[in-house]
Each structure stands twice: as structure tokens, then as C-alpha cells.
Amino acid sequence: MNKNSEQLLSKALRNDRIGEPDKAIEDRLMYAFLLKNSSVKVRQNSFSSFAGWLFSGQHMGMKAGFVSVVLFFSLFNNQLAFDPGKVSASDSITSQRILVADSAHFIQLVDSLRVDSLN
Amino acid sequence: MIFRRKNKTFSDNELMQQIVLGDQSAFSELYNRYKGRMYYYFYRMLGNSADTANDFLQELFMKLIEKPENYNPAFPFSTWFYSVANNMCKNEYRKRGIRQEYQEAEALEPQIDYLSDSTIEHEQVIVKIFETLDSLAEEHRSAFLLRYREGFSIKEIAEILELPEGTVKSRLFYAKKMLAEKLEYLKDQIEF
């Protein structure tokens, strides 16, 4: 069969119009689909797409930049520095003391007797 | 935006994967892609009846809803979908008991209504083509529609109809021969 006749047949058939299917079919199918998948967890409006993006390899530069900024502010923010028991004295001498919530464990280095009572 | 669904065009295979996960918008997209084509196929395969074509179209998509996992993503979706549709047509023919035997060309000789060039109109061509195809067995009709309406290759048609490529070629040859005899003006252009 030559090209012309192939094209002629194709053109004749492709230009053939028989109308559209009944629109009610789509509604019925959508309803059936909903019924069938009613037990399937809802994916719309969930964070699954965000989580998927977060743990994927996409936009790594943007993610790395964001993490760097967070780390930068974390490291240079003194409020977040955790250094317990270090008290700076006014004369720049620092004394290291372990602060314990339980006062029974506090070692009193000085005699508890008042000095002026001995006089 | 990362929180919004991506507004991109999915392939049929990707849509099927989403349908398996219960995505209704994917199903709607696939339905809109194929409704016209499948409706046409059923309409022409099952006696040019709009009601029958609508019933079969609905049944076909119901099969997709009920068992989307039947689709094997290793193969093109359109080929698989037409194969399901074609099996439905075959079952319908069996049910109706009107499956026609292979008709010899001579048997149709007295019915041939030649068209002269002066009377050719597009609608007439279509009517004559389908009159001829209706007189053929459904195997010839399906091969012809898949080739000239849907533009499938011989290999794809062979997959859809589950036949060797040689058989598809011979069916197309026979359908074209019948058409050429029916539509005399095509004779000059069709080579055998």
C-alpha cells in the first residue's frame, strides 16, 4: 500500500466524528473511584509532599544554605550556649563550681560558725 | 511551590501509578485522555451504537478502577488498554453469537456499490468504509481501526490483538483489498 492511500484512509478515519460519550459516565466513574479508594489514606493537603521534597535529593543547594544559616545563628547565639557552673567574677578570676540542685550535696568550704560569735 | 502539587504533564504510566495509590485527579486526567478514543473504538466495533459504546466505555474504566494493579508498567499503557477493550469486544461478539466467519472476497461481489469520482464526499467515504468493515469479521475491523484511526504500528497492533505480526499484516491487507473493491476510486492508490 502506498503512502497516499495510507494517508487517505487515516485522514478519512481521523476526521470521522461520532459525538461524545455520555457525561454522566464520568460522574459515575468518579463516584465509583471514591468508593473504591475510601479506605486509602488521604494524600491531598498533607505534608507528605513536603516531607518527600525535604528528604529527596532535589534543591540540595537551597537546603544546604538554609541549614548553614540556622547553624550560623545557633553557634553565635550566647543564649543558647550551655556552660553550667561557670561564673565570671568581677576581677576576671573565674571560679568553677558545680551547681547542684540538691543542697545536701553542697560542700561548705567555710566553717559554718559565725566568725563574730567567737569574739 | 513545594507545598503545591506540581503542574506538569504526567505520562500514562505515571498516572496509572498514582491511580493505584488512590489519586482521583490522576484517574480524571486519564479518563479525559482516553474517553473519546475508546468511545470511538467501541462505537465502530460494536455496531455503531452510542448506547452500547457508552456502556462499554463505562465498563472498561470500571475495570481500571477495580483492578488498576492488573496493568504492567513494563508495557505501554495504550497498548494494554486497547488490548482490554478488544477482549471486551470479543466477549461481546461471543455473547451475541454473531461472530462472522472469514468472508471470501467473491461473496461480497454482488453487494459492491462503486462510487465514481464525481460523487465522492467525505461522509460518503466514511459510510462506505464502515459498510465494508461491518461486513468483515471483527478481527479485520479491529486491525483496521487500530492502524488507521489510532495510528498504531503493526507491532503494537500485534500486541494488542495478541497475534503474530504476519497475521496482522494479512488482516490489514484483506481489509484494504475489500475497501479498494468497494471504493473503486481508491483502487488506483492502493497497491497490493
Describe the structure in your own words.
The complex is a heterodimer of chains A (119) and B (192). With 119 residues, chain A is mainly alpha-helical. Chain A has a domain at 48-117. Chain A contains 4 helices and 2 strands, in the order ααααββ. Chain A has helices at residues 3-14, 23-36, 48-54, 60-75, and strands at 86-88, 94-96. Chain A has a two-stranded antiparallel ribbon with strand order 1-2. The longest helix of chain A has 16 residues, at 60-75. Chain A is elongated. Chain B has 192 residues and is an all-alpha fold. Chain B has 2 domains: 12-96, Rna Polymerase Sigma Factor, Chain: A, CATH 1.10.1740.10; 105-186, Winged helix-like DNA-binding domain superfamily/Winged helix DNA-binding domain (Arc Repressor Mutant, subunit A, Orthogonal Bundle), CATH 1.10.10.10. Chain B is 61% helix and 0% strand. In chain B, helix 1 (12-20) packs across helix 2, helix 5 (122-134) crosses helix 8 (165-182) and helix 7 (154-161) crosses helix 8 (165-182). The model of chain B is unreliable at 101-119 (pLDDT under 50). Classes of the chains: A mainly alpha (119), B mainly alpha (192). Chains A and B meet through helix 1, helix 2 and helix 3 of A and helix 2, helix 3 and helix 5 of B.
Give descriptors for this structure.
heterodimer; A: 119 residues; mainly alpha; 2 strands; B: 192 residues; Rna Polymerase Sigma Factor, Chain: A; Arc Repressor Mutant, subunit A; 2 domains; 8 helices; 61% helix; 0% strand; globular
